[in-house]
Each structure stands twice: as structure tokens, then as C-alpha cells.
Amino acid sequence: MLPASALLLFVGCQRTAAKGGDADANRNSFVLGVGALPSSPGYASVLRGIELAVERLNEQSQITFRLQTPAAGALSAVQVAQQLRDTPAVIGVVGHPESGNSLEAIPVYADAEGAGSRAVVAISPTASSPRLSGISPWFFRVAPSDDDAARVTARWARDSLGARRAAIIYRNDSYGRDWSATFAETFADTTAVLAGTVRAVIVSRDPYLHGITEWDAYAQMLAALRPDVLLFPGDAEDALAMRRALKERNVSIPFIGGDGTEQMNESADGIGAYFVAFFRSDRASSVEATHFLTQYRDKYRQEPDMFAALSYDAAIVMGRTIIGGARTRRALRLALERIGNGAPSVDGVAGRIAFEKNHDIKGRSVVIARIDRIAGEGAP
Fold it and tell me: N or C: which end of the chain has fewer CB within 10 A?
């Protein structure tokens, strides 16, 4: 929760709401909103990443940065977005981490109902749906799209695992459907002749619903199909349930989780699985990454995950742009658009930050990581 002084700041700045903060261009204190539901997976990591970014920005400038978390009782992305958009002191928002929540919140941040008079920038750390590309002038993201990740994963499964028969079990939402469609198209590319006349094929492609899925039934099906690899674009909790069901049926299949499954590494059931990542602490070596990793390990006594690292990047690029002179919501949006399009890129934890014209991140890599131990055990 915010200290009383920060709450007083919000009350005192209400007069600027009509112009989205533009009337208060000379202020020397700025608030970054946390655009995420406290009940959502990864929220704690998102908050930690933003907190460390705010500390870093305050150390490096005369400007004071603060953060605002969602109000108690917020039950939806739309409610969170309304609260942050209508708080004049909030110059920009880090969030939402999920694609579905981002799709719901973007019209609110863009102030569609008010013709943009209260619009505020939102930079998502991890939302990856291809539907978000170019969706709004007020929305940016620092993670690659699902299309990019799924294509890389499909080629890796064919080339590195030697897989020719793939099964897909996907979460039945926009994320899972987009991921599975692009993976299937790339993996079973009819123009790619593999091993003579043998082509790669998708042997099954089945949706699941969180909380009501009979995982044993899927395990039985996979035991009969005997695919070379299983792709699982879902979340970590469901991925672990699927892996336990496979183990009980003595089914051993290379398992690749989508980019929402990194937290499989917190359970022994995740050991041996692969997952898609947009950040790996063992591969981060920039000045900003070194600072972030040191601070995170010292403060939280654990390794940062993708949510923390990319939330830090979203807050850092916003903060550095404000320090560079973008002191209103509208000026911030225009300045962010120029990063990588005439203005220099910004050093981030997961790599250099620059934006395409559709506000997607430029040149971010996709990593296929293997879980060899439970998070926090052994050397980082």
C-alpha cells in the first residue's frame, strides 16, 4: 500500500485529470501504476520488479518516482485500469502481464469513452498475444509475441529434439489457441521435408479448461498416441498436473511448456521439463542486468523470474524516458514511440529496449530452458 504522503499527492493532483496529466508538465514527482491483479499468477514478481526499478530511477535522478498498486477489492483488469487511468499522478502503467487482461484493459487506458482525454500509456511486461500488435497507440510491450515464440519452439522441437510427431494440449483461451495454431503450422510445415519423405505431423491438438480437466484421460490418450514431444501452452499449475498424470501412467514424453509455465521450476514434478522463456538470469550480462540481479538476490534471496525481469524493464524504459524530458502522459507516449525509431534504445535486463512501429519489442530473443533443479536449490 502507498504511504499517506503518496495518497495526498493523488488528491492534490486531481485538477489535471481532464488533460491526462498534460496540464502538470513541470512537476518533479511521478507515479508508475502497477497494472496487475493481486490474485494473478506472478503478481509478487511483477511488483518486485517494479519496486527495484523505482529504487534504481530514484538513485539516478533528481526526479522522485513512486508506484501505485491496485486498490483493495479490484476484481478485474478493467477495474484496475479505471483506477489507474483516473489517478492523475499516474503518468504510466506497467501491465498487464497477461494477454487476456491486457485486451480487456487497453480500451480503458486509451480512454476510448472520453476520446483519449485521460489516456495513459501501458507497457506490458509479458503479454504476448499477436492480437496486441498495433492494437492501440497507448499500448507497448517488452516481450516477444506468441507467434515468434511458437515458431522458434516448433523449429527447436524438430531440429534439436528430432521430433516428427507432436501432441498439443493447450489452455482454451486466446493465449493457448494462438500458441497452438502457430506451433502446429510451423511444426507441420508441408514445405519442410524431413528425413526424406517423412514429414512432421501433429497427432493431436486438444484444449483444456483450468480446474475441471481430467488429466488422467489426457495421459491415457498420449500413452496410446506415443508422440515424440508434447507442447503445453498453459500455466505452471496445470502443466505440473499434466506431468504428474503422465508419471502415474509411466508415460515419458519430452514436455515443452509455453512462456507461462516457468514456475514449474518450483516443484520436483517440473524437473526434466522444458519451458519457453524471454529471460534467463544465467544469460543476462548487461550493466542493467548485473545491477538488477545483484539487488534482487540481495533483497529477496532468490533468483528473479521472467515476470520480475520484464516488469523491471517496462518500468525502467518508462522512467528513463520521463527523466529524458517526457513529463506528461501524451509526451511519454510519443517519446516511447521514438525509441528505436530515431531515438537510442534503452539498456534493460533482458536486452536492449526499442520498439517497432506497432509498439512490439524489437529483437528480443526466445530461449528454450530445461529445468534441472528446483528453484533456489544449488548454484544460480
Answer: N
